[in-house]
Amino acid sequence: MTIPDSGFMIDNGASCLPLPPEEEKRIVKELTDQSEANLKEGNLYYVVSNRWYSSWQRYAGQAMDESSVDGWASESQNMDVLSVKTAGRPGEIDNSDILLKEDDFDGDELELRRMLEEGRDYVLVPQQVWEKLLDWYKGGPALPRKLISQGMIHKTFIVEVYPLCLKLIDDRDKSQSLVRLSKKASVRELYEKVCRLRELEQEKACIWDYFNKRKHAILSISNRALEDSNLQMDQEILLEVQDGNYTSRLGKDSTGNELALVSLEPSRSSVTIAGGPTMSNGHSTGYNFNLYQGSAVSSSFSDMDDGYDAYKLRKGERGGLAGLQNLGNTCFMNSALQCLVHTPPLVEYFLQDYSDEINTENPLGMHGELALAFGELLRKLWSSGRTTIAPRAFKGKLARFAPQFSGYNQHDSQELLAFLLDGLHEDLNRVKRKPYIETKDSDGRQDEEVADECWKNHKARNDSLIVDVCQGQYKSTLVCPACEKISITFDPFMYLSLPLPSTVTRPMTVTVFCGDGSGLPIPYTVNLLKQGCCKDLSEALSSACCLKSDEILLLAEVYEKRIFRYLENPSEPLASIKEDNHIVAYRLCKNWVGRTRIEIIHRPHEKLLSPLKRTRSSGKLHNGKENGCVKGAIEEPSNSSNFRSLSMDKTELEETSSSELSFQLFVTDGNSSSCKPIEKDSVVNSARVVKVFLDWSDEEHDLYDISYLKDLPEVQKAGFTVKKTRQEAISLFTCLEAFLKEEPLGPDDMWYCPECKEHRQATKKLDLWMLPEILVFHLKRFSYSRYSKNKLDTFVNFPIHDLDLSKYVISKDGKPHVYELYAISNHYGGLGGGHYTAYAKLIDENRWYHFDDSHVSPVNESEIRTSAAYVLFYKRVKTEPNAGVGETSQGS
What we know:
Distance between the termini: 67 Å
Number of helices: 17
Largest sheet: 8 strands, mixed
Structural class: alpha+beta
Helix content: 10-25%
Number of domains: 4
Oligomer: single chain
Strand content: 15-25%
């Protein structure tokens, strides 16, 4: 659809006036819809400061919602919603807040600040939208970015906000400059740009992969994409200028060994891989296998960072103690990898010849490339002593097959772990052609029969090392609430995601004010389900404060000393109230409902200022807030005001302002930015809420004791942040029991009942049926809702030895259900960042180590149990051949 130009501006015959905001909003929406309907690689998008764009949204009437900020709704943004209707037209487009300062970037290209987050710091608008906004508002600067496709299995489109930035070092004079290209650009384009920059002929240029200032390989001129060449953001590349023949390009690496010209084009021939050290456990890592010609995996080993010398374990060193270099917020990947490469069955498997099990034909896999990249990395980590490994090749494969982990922002180690286990399974799946198997209902059959049938069906389609050692089976029971139909299935699992019980309920402290002034404000703390609503809060408070039958409660949210909103919708989700928001409640007589609500803001007597000047001079007065109905007050900083909220009609207000009283009342607007005195005979316009300043004179200070206005419950004092009470430690068993507890399905997760022929909110019960050799627990520390994201730092007390799960397993398979901890993925800090590390125990050494990216250090077993534990890795304690029933061996 084409929008005619005549509709963009209003021509009054002399000049073009701005469009009405609703018209701007309509045009932007239509242009955005057009762009989204025509997605293709190469389309241009523009980066726009979210600060400016939010001001335009407010002007255009688009209130900020959770979708515009990817689920985040900051308090300042919430407050912005209040001013949508009164927002003025924004000024020029200003992107300065998302750019590096001029002194911080190199060259003429503008550079974005690193670690910006879409929706929080910037937004992306299609080219047509940018052109229209620029036409309306001017400003800038323009920050165009291209749409690229990513992913080998499932193609996705993303805007490349941060192009690949490489540090070019000229070997002639050691000068440095930055080269920025799309990671989709070819090596040939890199040569062209470097040669233009240095005014060179391509025939004389030779560019090296100079990662960590060490020659790795010559980048030969080809159409190979930079993303496939293991080049990392901000790494060095070395320019050498040749004046001899072609062979003069050959050089030496940092150890003096001659390097041959390396072509990074995929090899078309089969590759034989052999060699490897003999490990301390006696196993040889040598293996020989051929990959069919033309396979993408055939080049996997030609792109290694360190060559085959990496496999030579130096005398006196042991494997398994190598760190992983952080390649730019890759600690989440390093943490998950260290846990996996210290998983005993995986170590044993990938140090042997597994070539026969590489599945290059599986459409659900990564053509074997992920398994080969992981196996190669594992062997290097177990044979490099304490030499730090840079997992560039692995990261490159990961970005190709899992675009969600590309880029240089922090990601979730558990999500990566789930992808790796599933990807390794599909790459090593022994089933080449998966048969179609129709699922049967249990129909009252014995659990053992149904479970065995389900597992056989699963194995008929999924048979790999990962299934052998990492997959278990649980029983799922669904009951229809209408017809009581029972459906039982037995499903495989790779890990168990356990809720922390503290995620189920939340304590809420609310200060209750008496509407008739008969009592002082009192704080009450109630515990509510997180999925509850304001009706639940009101009912719990009514019980706690012994609300009378002729009273009601008015709930309100206090934000920065002003009334943010009244919580009058009983179905308002509690999730919309943040943990650190202040909530107050006012006890009102039922017959007060519907009457004008008067918010009285108390101000201390100030001799030198008139009322109007006093209002203007106190910069935070407009933030002074309160809501409720009485003599409740919130103490503000010095020279600011206390306030209360009353419910009365305009006659009562006028009577209250009688000249018999020496204090004065001033009516103020909604923002408290202006006020006017209320005279005896004045009429207050009827409104739902009227804000009034009340100035106390010296006489009133002498007559009335208002000290309680300055002595409110501490939870409501200005500038006071409620310190969270340290939660008691909970056990891993408590988390497991919460996972196995019967509960109703959510309204968005309805079950289709085969008897009722309708979707029902059935109850669901999980039970453990069969446990795997490697048991992984994911502690759900991160909670997400449409309103907020939170992290729980609850300390979970988990066993290190003798984790006995016998009472939770309902099958009688005769296997031991006792486990021992061998690895932990830790997360420190909050959301949107933080840091990941790992603890791991060596296979044949009874000692724990701390893996913090490149740094590896021993750690006492007593120190590994912390509130940072995020993913726990356990291995089954094997039963000795001559052990009796229930007796286990502590051997690994």
